[in-house]
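Aim 2 progress update. The chain analyzed this quarter is reproduced below.
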Amino acid sequence: MKARITMATGTETANIAIIGLGLLGASLGMALRGKPYRRLGWTRRAEVRSWALANDVIDESSDDIKSLLAKADLTVLCLPIPRIMEYIETYAACWRPGAVVSDIGSVKEVIVACGEKFLIPHGVDFVGGHPMAGTEKSGPYAAFEKLYAQAEVFVTRTADTVPAALRLVREFWQAVGTKVVEIGVREHDILVAHTSHISHILALALTEAVLDCDLKTQALRYSGCATGFRDTSRITSSAPSMWREIIENNQPAVLEAVREFAARYQKLSELIENRDYDQLEAEFAKGKKLRDAWIGYKNGGQ
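Predicted structure tokens:
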């Protein structure tokens, strides 16, 4: 397939449209301060657009999303999963031929299929993206400039991906200070089910197991829960609708991850039931070794 990219290079300034100015979109605008990009930002709420302009989150906005999309060299859709697909289909004819569209969605197979279906016929390339960054908070006023610093970002390649479009998206995320990893769409969804999505299910189960009880017991447990419970349950405070959408759009892989966890949890339960504390200690040691190795990786191999 012939490359269609006309992205600005050198000393020229490229137009980056950030659609959606919540935590992720606003933080992305902040991270682009001082970079060779003109930040075009849009969200439905006029007061948020005004706040973003006043606080150097974006350089330009408009009531009319179509006018911004028409100017964009690269568009990043920072929206919930259903809205990403809705906007791709609704505005497919608004991007100019040669433009590139990407996203920050937590699942990739359904989004990339939608992007390629509706955009390629208009001469627009789609490259899926997923930065492994975020907090349990949401909304534009929770945004901060360093959210993406040193985060790993997955970008997807398919049989229809134009190499120049992929390179453009890679370079954009590298400019933000992230580490870019290329991955297939199905491979991505299986991976994040095991590394991200399951954590939210486990945090939910833990929170309910500890706090979903009668008021007298709950009052005592409030007193008894300290930093360990706080840290392991933290992500339960994430937006429920977002996690419903993520799991709904990645159900087979999430179910696989949950079943793998259930088997390991059952094994630990049996060790406790059988008073096999030597083996239980060995499992704790194994878990410590595995996590310490991961922390070393995240700290740059220190």
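Residues 185-211 form the longest helix (27 residues). Confidence is low (pLDDT under 50) at residues 1-11. These observations will guide the mutagenesis experiments scheduled for the next reporting period.
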